[in-house]
Amino acid sequence: MNIFGIGLPEMGLILLIALLVFGPKKLPEIGRSLGKAIRGFQDASKEFESEFKREAQQIEDSVKMNARLEEGKTGVERTES
């Protein structure tokens, strides 16, 4: 098991140190807070990604529309010449 480059022995050592520093009563609260923070980060990341994709799609649509308008203009100019 390897999460963020940290193996099982390292995770156990981190948990033991956290248990000694914060105590058994505080550890679940810290875990909950950490879980909420990670969840908030994931939600913000997904929101950013969807907003980025939406903006990219709007730009792509705008470029396609401009290309069609330019094609229409060049077609008109050719028939007039």
Automatic annotation (TrEMBL):
Keywords annotated in UniProt: Cell membrane, Membrane, Protein transport, Translocation, Transmembrane, Transmembrane helix, Transport
Compartment(s) of residence: Cell membrane; Membrane
Signal peptide start and end residues: none
Transmembrane segments: 6-23
GO molecular function terms attached to this record: protein transmembrane transporter activity
Gene3D superfamilies reported for this sequence: 1.20.5.3310
One GO process term, biological-process aspect: protein transport by the Tat complex
Subunit comment: Forms a complex with TatC.
Similarity remark: Belongs to the TatA/E family.
NCBIfam families named in the record: PRK14857.1, PRK14861.1, tatAE
Cited function: Part of the twin-arginine translocation (Tat) system that transports large folded proteins containing a characteristic twin-arginine motif in their signal peptide across membranes. TatA could form the protein-conducting channel of the Tat system.
Name of the protein described by the UniProt record: Sec-independent protein translocase protein TatA
Organism the protein comes from: Pannus brasiliensis CCIBt3594
Top-level taxonomy: Bacteria, Bacillati, Cyanobacteriota, Cyanophyceae, Oscillatoriophycideae
Gene name linked to the record: tatA
